[in-house]
Every structure is written in C-alpha cells, then in structure tokens.
Amino acid sequence: WGRTGHRATGEVAEEYLSKKAKQQIKELLNGQSLAFVSTYGDDIKSDPQYRKYGPWHYVNLDEGQTEYSKEEANPKGDLVQAIKTSITVLKDPKASKEDKAFYLKMLVHFMGDLHQPMHTGRGEDKGGNDIQVRWFGKGSNLHRVWDSEMINDFQMSFTELAESTDELTAKEIKQIRSGSILDWMYESKELSKKLYDSVETGEKLGYEYMYEWFPVAHDQIQKGGIRLAKVLNDIFG
Ligand code: ADE
Ligand code: ZN
Ligand code: ZN
C-alpha cells in the first residue's frame, strides 16, 4: 500500500491489541503509534544502507507453483520470510531494544503489504507494475492503482478507513484472525488473480472500477490490521 493504506492498517491494529502488547509496544516505540511507524519500511528504501530490504515487500510464486516452498523462495528474501524474520527477532529475549524496534516497525509495514493483493502477484510483471492502465485519464499501472490511486481518489483518511471495523461481528473477527501467515498470503494471492482478470493492458479505469474494487481494498486493510494485532498479541503475550 501507499501511506494511507499502511497507516489505516496500524490504526485498525491498535483497536485489537491486548494490554500487555500495548504496553511493550509503547516502550519499544517510545510512545509512537502503529499508524505513525507503519510507513517506515518505505521511508528507508531510499537509504543505500537498507537496500537489501527491497525484495522483502512482496512475494511472487512462479506460474504453476501452487505452494510456497523454502527451496523455491527468493534467496534475497520475500514478504513471507520478512514477516517470519521480524517475528523471530521480536520473540528473541537476547535481541536488543534497537533491533526489536526496527523489526516491529517493519512488521507493521509488512503485514499491510501482505494484504495488498498486488504484493502477492506475478513476478513476470512485477506485481502489476508492468501492466499499464489509464487511471482517470492519467498513465498508471495495476500495482499503483491498488497501492494508492483508488484509496487516494476516494479521499478517505486513514482514520476513516480504520473506523468501520466497528461493524464487524465477533464471529467475523474470529474468522479473520484464524489461519497462518501462509494462509493469508494465499488468500491475497487468490485475490490478485481476480485483479489480473479485472483489467486489460491499456484499459481506461475510473469511477466504475473504483466503486467495484474500493470496498475490497478497504476489506483487505481491515483484515491486515486485525491480523497484525493478532500477530503482535501472540508475540507479546
Ligand atoms: N514491487 C517491485 N517488484 C515487485 C514484484 N515483483 N511484485 C510485487 N511488488 C513489486
Ligand atoms: Zn512496502
Ligand atoms: Zn506496492
């Protein structure tokens, strides 16, 4: 996601944190909110020191590869490995506060990206970055439409995007929380297939596309926030 999607993910998660998790997160982040730190993963991208984290923002399975496997995974890392590494450091009693704070900020970001379907898309078109489309008359691409164009043009603030979780029932929340990182990745990947089918290269997209798909983006952001809180509650007890 772009900044708004990431911030909304962090904002949703705050609502679902346990007392213990909240306390430890507050200490690690020196009082900064999850929404505030959620964009850190993108902000460090321009710093050569952090270049190695570039591939950690997405995961591509090859055509015909139905299951994620360690053997076929990108040796430079990917979104699944990124989330697992972040969790491992956060659970490590010997890790420094500095390292924990870094990986906490990264985890908040990566749980957002896991729910942006084009971050679990095909490698050959760079998760839709190479699929050019027109967005309200301007040049764009399928990845960018999903990262930010739809959300920005809907003009919903991150707090507004986060708010409507209140409408979810306890049963729905329980359903969303179930499953593993890999299950959530496959769910996002299934959605990406629908999105690839939803457009043709060069297609003119606008309000019709936005009204069909914005609710799906919104849903994904909510799920990302609820699941981020689940992961953090598991880590911090
Ligand atoms: N961003 C850059 N490359 C990407 C890829 N292969 N998949 C998803 N997002 C990307
Ligand atoms: Zn990212
Ligand atoms: Zn993106």
Topology (elements, then pairings):
Layout: H1 3-15, H2 19-28, H3 34-37, H4 40-43, H5 79-91, H6 97-114, E1 132-135, E2 138-141, H7 142-154, H8 158-163, H9 170-177, H10 181-198, E3 204-205, H11 207-236
Parallel strand pairs: 1-3
Antiparallel strand pairs: 1-2
Helix pairs in contact: 1-6, 1-11, 2-11, 5-6, 6-11, 7-11
Residues 58, 60, 119, 121, 123, 126-127, 129 line the site of adenine (ADE).
Task: Provide a descriptive summary of the structure in words.
One of its GO terms (molecular function) is metal ion binding. InterPro entries: PLipase_C/P1_nuclease_dom_sf (IPR008947), S1/P1nuclease (IPR003154). This protein has a 3-stranded mixed beta sheet with strand order 2-1-3. The mean pLDDT is 96. 58% of the residues lie in helices and 4% in strands. Strand 1 (132-135) and strand 2 (138-141) form a beta hairpin. The longest helix is centred in the last third of the chain and has 30 residues, at 207-236. The protein is built from 11 helices and 3 strands, in the order ααααααββααααβα. The chain has helices at 3-15, 19-28, 34-37, 40-43, 79-91, 97-114, 142-154, 158-163, 170-177, 181-198, 207-236; strands spanning 132-135, 138-141, 204-205. The protein is globular, with a radius of gyration of 17 Å. With 237 residues, the chain is mainly alpha-helical.
